Amino acid sequence: MLGQILVLWVFLSLPTVSSVALKYFYRALSQSTGLPEFSAVAYLDEEPIYSYDSSTKEVVARQEWVKEAVDPDFWGRSTHILMETENVFKDNMNTARARFNQTSALVLQKLYKCEWDEETGATDGHEQYGYGGEDFLLFDMKNERWIAPVRQGLITKMKWDDNVKLKAKIHYLTHTCIEWLKKYVPYQRSMLERTVPPQVTLFQKNLSCPVTCHATGFYPKAIKIFWGRDGVEIHDDVVHEETLPNGDGTYQKRTHLTVSPEDLQKYNYTCTVQHIRGDDVVLSANRDSIRRNIRRHYNITITIFMVFVLVTLVIGVVVIKRKGWKGKDPTAGKEKQCPTSLPEKNVLLLNDAKPAEMEKPKMSHPADTLQCPNQDDWLRQIVQQKRYNFLKLFKSL
């Protein structure tokens, strides 16, 4: 959102040289946006450390070190508090909408911050509300009062200027918030001071795809990856992706090289990864070092070949049996009958129950005569069924 509240947000995001700050940012939206109606994020300086939103109804850690800094019950307590805060914010949105005489509510924001100077021990605090991208209420802790930049906030200012509420607000910003800030700082710095080397691999989906140099699991975030050919750094046909965070607090980065299979064999291509932790990692892009999916395609080819052989054998057996049928009539000397399914057997039993009617001659139509399928039709059905099964299996691979 544009407006003065974002300007002040930037201003409050710039702590003094020797100070650290703990900030909380709340936001409530209308239902029509499709985003969570309420969200809250806690920051230690510029780093988000945990968050909550109305869609998940749960406080989750944004940094691994936060889990070590708090007790196990912290997450349940914080979730309960923010669920109550969510309800209060929804009521405040309706109040603001009525104050401004609007048919639908705009964005309501809250930002509060405590700051600690490690050299002098001095503390400071700020709090403000914004509505529709404009300042709505500002807290002047030095003079112990609220300031209403717009007339719609005057009613709230007079209510909140009550002496008891002001003292509680000041105590929180100068004591409670500072205690949490001092608790978080050592854990954050122990994490920032650590260094983890990258794990580097080369992979390629197939011979026509670019070769990817993938570095992952490293910390801190700063890293350099570049491709070389015969010892000379190259930039053409090289694409760098942005560095992305992993779920465990480390980072990953990928760099792609587009190169033909012929050039890959002709020249010595290398990927070099430079990180603050440890020596440079240099991998040569050759047949043994690049991971590919060739084995999977090989297994698919073998499977298709085996299925083809099996279908061929089945057709061969059927052809041999057919030749045997042509040389011998299995119905010689016997009444010829068709194989019957269960419904057909029932029909035959009903006919047997009325032999007199069966003996009466009657005119018949070719369509009324039940005929047995010949051997050619039966063989054709088997081959078509086997062919269908083969094609179905082939498509599923």
From TrEMBL:
Residues 186-284 form the Ig-like domain. Keywords: Glycoprotein, Membrane, Signal, Transmembrane, Transmembrane helix. SMART domains: IGc1. One of its GO terms (cellular component) is external side of plasma membrane. One of its GO terms (biological process) is immune response. Residues 1-19 form the signal peptide. The chain crosses the membrane at residues 298-320. Gene3D superfamilies: Immunoglobulins, MHC class I-like antigen recognition-like. The keyword tRNA-binding does not apply. PROSITE patterns: IG_LIKE. CDD domains: IgC1_MHC_I_alpha3. It comes from the Eukaryota. Belongs to the MHC class I family. PANTHER family: MHC CLASS I ANTIGEN TRANSCRIPT VARIANT 1-RELATED (PTHR16675:SF237), MHC CLASS I-RELATED (PTHR16675). This is Major histocompatibility complex class I-related gene protein-like isoform X1. It comes from Salvelinus namaycush (Lake trout).
